[in-house]
Design brief:
Blueprint: H1 3-35, E1 44-45, H2 47-54, H3 58-70, E2 74-77, E3 81-84, H4 89-113, H5 116-135, H6 138-155, H7 159-183, H8 186-201, H9 205-227
Antiparallel strand pairs: 1-3, 2-3
Helix pairs in contact: 1-3, 4-6, 4-7, 4-8, 4-9, 5-6, 5-8, 6-7, 6-8, 7-9, 8-9
């Protein structure tokens, strides 16, 4: 390849990598703002305002918003603009239907396929969750929960299941953030996470699947409590 053409290809590759990094950065920041309700449901989003606030160009912002649209956290309405999606507890129950099946697959597979480094991380998260349960430390719990979700998806080493689970994480985290102070038993939830993390770390796929079901059972009970409905209904 001539030197000039090679330099052009390298420049294109560098530009693509930088844009992807900026898109990832924009996505993570906007997703956090939406999930933690700093951008409230129904809020109108402006690409230019977000670009100015985050110090990131409009193209990465636009690509991040498109990703958030696919995940259901943002909606694009013709002639109205880009809105943060509303929170619907009844739809959250549908999210949990899918999450139960996909998460069971991920934890069972992760218990078999996780690397030694990933197993060490699961054990550290388990210990952190147990500490958060004892101290009722909601901030530590929420940080560990996000890390745990990412690690579960990663440790299964199944890109298709990982993509599916990625569509559910933001919706689940935002719903929890909105309602946990009124309805959640944080120590119990933290202990359930710790139990699941330990089974994955120890390579026990069936026990991990059972622990995953118990965690989703709790999430469903929590969701129904926000609706004021009978958990058995």
């Amino acid at each position: 390849m001539p030197e000039t053409s090679q330099k052009v290809e390298q420049a294109r590759a560098t530009d693509s990598w930088n844009r992807e990094s900026l898109t990832d950065r924009a996505y993570k920041r906007i997703e956090e703002l939406v999930v933690t309700l700093q951008l409230e449901p129904g809020s109108v989003l402006s690409e230019s305002a977000l670009a100015q606030d985050l110090g990131i160009g409009r193209t990465p912002i636009r690509e991040a918003l498109q990703r958030l649209t696919r995940e259901g956290l943002v909606v694009i309405l013709p002639r109205k603009g880009i809105l943060v999606s509303e929170i619907n507890p009844r739809k959250q129950l549908l999210v949990l239907e899918v999450r139960r099946e996909v998460e069971r697959l991920l934890v069972r597979t992760g218990a078999v396929r996780a690397t030694e480094e990933e197993r060490t991380q699961f054990m550290r998260i388990a210990e952190g969750m147990e500490k958060a349960a004892r101290e009722k430390d909601e901030i530590s719990f929420m940080r560990l929960d996000h890390e745990f979700n990412m690690l579960v998806s990663q440790a299964a080493h199944n890109e298709y299941a990982q993509r599916t689970m990625g569509l559910l994480h933001g919706l689940s985290r935002r719903f929890w953030y909105m309602h946990y102070k009124e309805s959640a038993d944080l120590p119990l939830c933290a202990r359930l996470h710790a139990e699941l993390a330990r089974h994955i770390a120890l390579g026990a796929p069936e026990r991990a699947a059972e622990a995953s079901d118990r965690l989703v059972d709790y999430a469903e009970t929590f969701t129904r409590a926000t609706l004021g409905t009978d958990p058995a209904s």
